[in-house]
Amino acid sequence: MNRSRPLFKLFKSLKGLLGSRGERISDITIARQSIEVKDQLLRWVKELLFLSLGILSAGFGLKGFLLPNDFIDGGVTGISLLTRVITGYPLPILIVIINIPFIILGYFQIGKSFVFKSILAIVGLAFALAFIEYPTITSDKLLVAVFGGFFLGAGIGLSVRGGGVLDGTEVLAIYLGRKTGLTIGDLILVFNVFIFSTAAYLLSMEIALYSILTYLSASKTVDFVIEGVEEYIGVIIISHRSEAIRLMITERMGRGVTIYNGTSGFGPREELKDTEILYSVITRLEIANLQNKVRQIDPNAFIVMNSVKDLKGGMIKKRQFKEH
């Protein structure tokens, strides 16, 4: 009996130690989960803020400048404006209806999250045009073209930063670019040449020329708002969880990944460590989605993004997207 007591005390102490350790592990897990939930909530708030500001800015550009002067823009917005001038149908309804095919195409090409945010942005813009009373700023044609394009472009750029779009033209251009081999910029240019040629025929050459100036102002503003991001973005990712990130990009986003073997370290006294460097090419519409998913896997991942001016060869066709 005397010998069993020390064994009993040892077993009890070990049990208490394991229990306290289990509680610590559980507390750490809960803390990490709460941080992840908080980060996700902050990302949603940030994206919603970008979408809201984009809606308000685009609505101001349309109702404060373009609509009172019968100016048009490029893309789906330009088609909607041109249809409104010709038929007299309400612009909010036209923007929603004409964007529907592009949103459906975006579902198969990019994913559910992009489509949901784009629907919010487009429907929100329609409501803003229908119910918000924007003041008419000026009737000077040059000012209308420049500043109308500026606010419309700012709205489109902010919506892209929020993970959605106000204009579905780029989705179609991305799809046709993969099918035909033409660059996205060339396809968008073809669309807009057709739109402005139609405007010159149906409206007037003067309106078409001012509308081209509106489009140029809007496109430059879009590039400025989203920090000069081009259609394709080269992404370099360095992380200790490179395999999980690689699987996420290839299986869930349907993008190819190239793996480089490298070494990493900081400072002269730190030992260099072997590491895998991931490189992938995505579209600018997928930037927010990729960043969110990488942060969920490794919040400390090092990400470098560069504009890709053109692509030749290789395998860049997007496979089926799996949203989880």
Write the topology of this structure.
Blueprint: H1 4-66, H2 75-87, H3 91-109, H4 112-131, H5 141-161, H6 169-180, H7 184-202, H8 205-225, E1 232-238, H9 242-252, E2 258-264, E3 273-283, H10 287-297, E4 302-308
Antiparallel strand pairs: 1-3, 1-4, 2-3
Helix pairs in contact: 1-4, 1-5, 2-3, 2-7, 3-4, 3-6, 5-8, 6-7, 7-8, 9-10
Describe the 3D structure.
This protein is of the alpha+beta class and 324 residues long. It folds into two domains: 46-225, no CATH class; 232-308, Alpha-Beta Plaits (2-Layer Sandwich), CATH 3.30.70.120. It is 65% helix and 10% strand. The chain is built from ten helices and four strands; from the N terminus they run ααααααααβαββαβ. The protein has helices at residues 4-66, 75-87, 91-109, 112-131, 141-161, 169-180, 184-202, 205-225, 242-252, 287-297; strands at 232-238, 258-264, 273-283, 302-308. It has a four-stranded antiparallel sheet, covered by helices on one side. β2 (258-264) and β3 form a beta hairpin.
